[in-house]
């Protein structure tokens, strides 16, 4: 991972963490605010529900009192009315039900269940409720459609005390709907043993309400809770469970529910705003981090690039100093370092060049000194002979001029070698067969290898069976291979094995020339291709330099494998075409 | 004016008033009778006896107006000649041969000329029984036209028939007893009781059905009964329901004293043995019998206020005995129905009741045994014998004897 990536990652994580922290804090604060508002709303709802039920109860009492005083009920009490007269009185007072009963609770007329005339009223309320004139209360009353329903009941006697009038409103879907007519609010009624009446005619899952209902029934007071109807959070409703109790009997549990969909929608909206803000913040943070990182790491990157350039030999590499901070100082130091390195390199090159000239001069002096001394001696002999007799001079002259010519020839040879190295021409590429060149070279040296008196050298050729045709300068290759063969012969003064092998390998050809001579040390191997370096007594040190020059001009490479006492193997790898890598 | 003229003037005034009054009560020819009924009849084919008691009652009343039988029962239930003028044994005394009434025309104008075989009956049972069977409206003489329509000889002919909806009957001018008073009868079928009452009040109709038990007519022509149609109820549960019903309170409060409490299908005036069928209440016994009773669905005509009250009261009574009877649809376990007494003959009436009950029936049995067979097992629980009730416009006279009904001055 790059420094820039690390820095970018670090800055991004920091920004994201900070944004997430802020978003979470805002979300928690919002939720707590909503919960406080929800609590307040529930207590308001409870107060409103109590007021509403009290008002309904008072209204029921008034309606029943009016019914008890009506002429129709008087006729019922007197036994002179139709069996269903209570229906008319109930409708007149807008009551959900109305029973006119004798003091012994025998039904004289029942509005909601006319067919029960003559039966004893068997509501699940205490007998004293029938004879007291208390406030309205909740009770379960039997109905023809089922076991019983919950009703808000008031009981009043008729004026002549001959009958009791019990009437009220059924806590039915209409009643529930009137209670829960606020937007987002609804009222449910739980009836024992486990039935729920919904004002909207729905069929709520009773099991989800059981806990709340049991809490309200067990504590005999209000209970609050939240019910999530489906897996969607927006289906949640906050419920207030209100037990409908009278004299210890729980007729049912009124459940006032307010939908939390709007609240959750608002929470979700806030959450989404937070998420959008967080994502935007993170995005902006990342962009800013990227921009900052880019600015911070640009000098470092330039330094790294400069270091790589220097490593690859570009001593002129410089880094732009764009700041005055530590990074700027580092860039300036780098520039100073490269300048000093360049200067030191120039000085070293200069010193090496001087050393090379000195070495060249030493070589030239050494090479030229050898022929010059015989030339001097010969010339002095000629002078001496001139002073002596003419015949002797003639003899000496003939001998000396021969010697002079020979030594001049030597001098020309020496100078020619240096001249050849200096004037190495560019290769003239043509299609040549490497195996054929090797065989020609070996034919040139065949006589030398088989000469009488010379040490026994066994030449072995292990050439590729198929011709190795490549694009190369045949003459230069012949000269290079010849140098390697000569070096090998020179390395084996006591005889040995000269082995030349060729092969084609994956887009290039490989030629190895091995000897079983004394071998080379590691240091000698390292300096072997340096011009004018030689391990031989009378070598010019140009042979392997020429070989390396030829191989290099052909786009190939040369290496040596050797160790002292184990001979040496020179390996040349040449591309089939000069443009391709070896 | 001389004082001696005053008595003459008074006498003349009284005479004219009497004449006017007599004219008001004298039958008049003409006019269309508008009838609405709850029943919805698909046809008037006598061969198809409806099992729905409401339709049965309506069809038993309409068929004789269009199709006539060889004999009819008089008010006392005695067979009387009708399309057959007399009947005698054949020579071998193995068949009864009926003499066709002459100069009887069919509704299509053709003379009624029955084949000899259609006027014979095997002498395999008493002639009294044969005649009573022949008197059933379902054995009326019909002629099937090539297009499938039915032609009869009755005082009215079918001019229009919309199955289940409406029908028009026109007076048969060529009826052998003379044309009826009415020109036509317009019938609207399948009308609910509330609409009928409303139409009657608005003067749109002359005759409608009426709630049960509201007539002062003393002669019971219908039996209010419970019919158990589905196998959900066991005989014990059905008996428990029968024993739980407080008929006294129902008659006193809901029927306002109308009708007779009964345990028999046929009224006492018809069978003479109705008192032999016990219909007393025994709640304790009902509770014992109702153990393990499943809830039953219960249907009755909720449009009829009295029937609805009786049905609800029966549910309350049953609940007291531990049986739940909830209001249900037409496929309910129990029905509260008015079964019509369609004949003055016990067996013929019981035969029609057997059709309603979808029970087997044989004319060979004595009436008591036949009725006992229908009642045993409590598939049917008779409750009250009630008069058939209609609501009539003031201008309608002689209802329900259709050939003699006439329309008075409005």
Please tell me about this protein's structure.
The complex is a heterodimer of chains A (582) and B (410). By secondary structure, chain A is α+β, with helices and mostly antiparallel strands. In chain A, 52% of the residues lie in helices and 21% in strands. Chain A has 14 helices and 17 strands. The longest helix of chain A is centred in the first third of the chain and has 66 residues, at 3-68. Chain A is rod-shaped, with a radius of gyration of 60 Å. The mean pLDDT of chain A is 82. By secondary structure, chain B is of the alpha+beta class. Helix content of chain B is 29%, strand content 21%. In chain B, the strands form seven sheets. In chain B, strands 14-18-13-17-15-16 form a six-stranded mixed β-sheet, with helices on both faces. Chain B has a four-stranded mixed β-sheet with strand order 1-11-10-9, with no helix packed on it. In chain B, helix 5 runs antiparallel to helix 8 and helix 10 (346-357) runs parallel beside helix 11 (367-375). The radius of gyration of chain B is 24 Å and the shape is globular. Chain B starts with a helix and ends with a strand. The A-B interface holds A 83-84, 113-119, 144-145 and B 246, 249, 253-254, 309, 312-313, 315-316, 320, 326-327.
